[in-house]
Structure formats: C-alpha cells, structure tokens
Amino acid sequence: MSNVATLTVNGQTIELPIIESVEGDRGIDIRQLRQKTGCITYDPGYGNTGSCKSAIAYMDGEKGILRYRGIPIEDLATHSSFVETAYLVINGELPTREQLNRTSVQLNDHSLVHEDMQIFYQNFPRASHPMGILSAMVNALRSFYPELIASDKDFEEVYVRLISKIRTMASVSYKISRGHKVEYPRPDYTYCANFLNMMFNTPVKPYILRKELVRALNVFWILHADHEQNCSTAVVRSVGSAQTNIYASISAGISALWGDLHGGANQAVIQMLIDIHEKGVKVKDVIKRAKDKNDPFRLMGFGHRVYKTYDPRAKIMKKNCHDVLDRLNYEDPLLDIAMELEQIAISDPYFIDHNLYPNVDFYSGIMLRAMGIPTNMFTVMFAIGRLPGWIAQWRENMQDAEQRLTRPRQVYSGYTERPYIPIDER
Ligand code: CMC
C-alpha cells in the first residue's frame, strides 16, 4: 500500500504523506496543505478528520468492535471492575493486585468533598439539572485542590481524586435535591457499592446492598469508560490544548456530554418511551416521525457516527438491563415498548439503509430506572463512567509533542468588505 497520497489543486499536484495506523483508518497528513495549495479541508462535524494519534481506545464501526488499550469491551464487561478498567484506560496496562489495592486505598482517601462545597449545592435552584451542577462543581474543584501534574505521582493523585470525588459529588447533589441528609462514603465499600449506598441509604431505611446491582453498575461504567474521539472527549482535548487545567477541561466535557445527541440521549430515550406509554403515542407513529425528513424528531438511542452496525456496548447493556430487571423482579412496561421499537426499527428499510441500530443509550436508562436512579441523573451516570477516558485523553493530548492549540479554520461565507453606514443613513 502506498504511503503517499497525491492531490491536484488548480493543476498543481502535491504529495501528502500517509500516517499508518496499527488498525483501522490511516491518516493523510494534511499539515502542509494550506501552505502548499492555499486550500483547507471542509469537514463539518470532523467525520473525516483525525485530530490526534491515540493509543487509548480502538473502534471498528463496521464490525462493531470496541477495545480499551487492546482489550475487548466484552472481556472487560465480563471479568473486570470499573476501578480496574479505569486504571487500564488511564495507565495503559492492567494493574497488578498491589497497584489495584493501592488505587482502592487512594480512592477512599480522596472520597470526601470539601465541606465548603456543600454551600454551593444548597444554593442551586431546586430545578437545576444535575449535569449543570456537576459541571460547575468539577470546575470548582480547581479552587479547592491544587492541580499538581508535574510528575506521574502527582498526576496519580489528581486523577484518583477526580474519580473518587465525582462519585461523591453526584450522590451529594441527589441527596440535597431531595432535601435529605448527605450520606458519607464508607471505607469498607468498593467504588460502586459506595455510590449506591451514598445515593440510597437513609437513617430511616438502611440500603441493602445487592451484589448483582453492584456488578451491574460496574458493567454500566465499564461500558462508558472511553470511546475515543467522541464529542465530549474532543472538547476535553480542545480545552486542554489551551493549557487549561484538567478540572476546567473535564467540566467542559461534562457540558458537551449533556446534549441529547450525545450522553443526554439516555434521558431522552426514557422520555420518548414514557410519552409512548403515558400519552398513548403509537410505536409505529414514532417510527414514522423518525423517518420523516420534515420532522426534526429522531429515534433516540438509535444511530451512531462511527457504528454502522449494532453498538457492541448496546448488546452488553441490553443483557445487563434484562438481568437487573429479572433479579429485581421488576416489571417495566418501558422495556416492552423499547423491545417493540427495536424490533420494528431494525427490520425497517429506512433504518437498515441508514445503518441505524440501538446504541449504548437505548437500554441503559431502563436499567438505571430499575436501580432507582432518577431520570435526570442518567447523564450524570454516563459522565462518571466516561471520566477515566477524559482523564486519559486529556493527558495523552498534553504529552503529545505534535499537538498544538486547537484552532480549526473556516470557509468564509459572509459579506466581502463593505463600508460602514452611519445609523441615520441606513
Ligand atoms: N433516527 C432517525 N434518523 C436518524 C437517526 C435517528 N436516531 N440517526 C441518524 N439518522 C439519519 C439522519 O436523518 C440522516 O438521514 P439522511 O442521510 O437521509 O439525511 C442519516 O441518518 C445520518 O444522520 P447524521 O445526523 O448525519 O449522522 P451523525 O453521524 O451526524 O449522527 C447521531 C449520529 C448519534 C447524532 C444520530 O444518529 C442521532 O441523532 N441519534 C439519536 C441520538 C442518540 O441516540 N445519541 C446517542 C449516541 S451514542 C452515545 C454517545 O456515545 O454519545
């Protein structure tokens, strides 16, 4: 295979080097393009643009493959824990038992949030969306904790602090939104068990931990741990490229994730299913609307920029969702509606032609609902899971000597120069 691409612009032919990948798309190196041709590329949404070299996650959208640091998502979901997977994503290798124990100890050591931060929570209006609160609180961490990323050891402290505190901050925001007493983390509980306990334990009704729910939560967060250059990760890298601190960069990523087309889809899916269930909207009418070009409505939890087949995470999530509902003996009419929607959509020519299949968000909300997580916290759950990926990608970007300040160009489409006309003459 040639390692050079040729491009002819206005009769002038130039050669552009091709950057080899280990697997997947190779990259045409266009760094000299503008200088040599006076042209730039035009690629809204960056669907054909490689913004970095990365060794963290690999996806094959045609085959439905996702691996973290080379390890298939299926293996991690079966055998790993979220903390172990987070370690892998951030450090590049699976931890030894000693390293994993050390990480667990550090997660406990950093699990409290500064008491002064509780005042912030109290002052958000009651109707605030938890994603807005989370983004603000993660940004505020910079005011309470030094950034310290000079050495690997310092960085370890920063990332463990982030992973530990985001879980505490999310559960504190839930407790305060309900007007309940905040539940502090317990050093004898694992990461996921602690989260469930902090969310649901109350002085009047002790929360009974169920190991199958703890496992299901581990799987949920493992499935979200990284997804290469998705919208929020690209934002984290982009903000970090200005040498912005890690807390502010991740806070921006949380904001990006909030959107309905990205992480917010898990909440939007449930809303769509509730509308069908409660407002008597017919499944076939939902499908009809999703196919109507004159209607902005989309089938939420369907489609993906990269996956042109069933999202491998969705397969695992679907099973995880069924398992949780079975174990809890929880009957949710939304699950039946979701399965009916899926069945109709995957055999409909529109969805087949457009390669639209369920993505990770299609079944996740139903599982979270059964676990007791309120709908407006679904995207927060996604954010907690995605944190290791954001941390790893932020760092990789910082350490990559080829990276520069993110600054795309544009193809200008406005007025050419024209005179200023004083207001009375207009
Ligand atoms: N329902 C109906 N039509 C769709 C859908 C959908 N969910 N998704 C894409 N299409 C159609 C779209 O109308 C377009 O049709 P045409 O070519 O005839 O004009 C075609 O498919 C391509 O759509 P696109 O918007 O150019 O594709 P994209 O790669 O920019 O969008 C997406 C990817 C995820 C934004 C989109 O599929 C979507 O809006 N899905 C619903 C929201 C959703 O579930 N988001 C969660 C994504 S997975 C979690 C994550 O990692 O963020």
Write a structural description:
Helix 6 (130-144) packs across helix 7 and helix 14 (312-328) packs parallel to helix 17. This protein folds into three domains: 4-60, Rubrerythrin, domain 2, CATH 2.20.28.60; 69-255 and 377-399, Citrate Synthase, domain 1, CATH 1.10.580; 265-371, Cytochrome P450-Terp, domain 2 (Cytochrome p450-Terp, domain 2), CATH 1.10.230. The mean pLDDT is 95. It has helices spanning 33-37, 73-79, 82-91, 97-109, 117-123, 130-144, 152-177, 191-200, 211-224, 231-240, 246-257, 265-279, 283-291, 312-328, 333-346, 349-353, 361-371, 378-399, and strands at residues 4-9, 12-19, 27-28, 57-60, 65-68, 71-72. It contains 18 helices and six strands. 39% of the residues are buried. It is mainly alpha-helical and 426 residues long. A three-stranded antiparallel sheet has the order 1-2-3. The protein has a three-stranded antiparallel sheet with strand order 4-5-6. The structure holds carboxymethyl coenzyme *A (CMC). Carboxymethyl coenzyme *A binds at residues 45, 227, 230, 261-263, 265, 290, 298-305, 354, 356, 359-361.
Set out the fold topology.
Elements: E1 4-9, E2 12-19, E3 27-28, H1 33-37, E4 57-60, E5 65-68, E6 71-72, H2 73-79, H3 82-91, H4 97-109, H5 117-123, H6 130-144, H7 152-177, H8 191-200, H9 211-224, H10 231-240, H11 246-257, H12 265-279, H13 283-291, H14 312-328, H15 333-346, H16 349-353, H17 361-371, H18 378-399
Antiparallel strand pairs: 1-2, 2-3, 4-5, 5-6
Helix pairs in contact: 2-9, 3-9, 3-18, 4-7, 6-7, 6-11, 7-8, 7-18, 9-14, 9-18, 10-11, 10-18, 11-18, 12-15, 12-17, 14-17
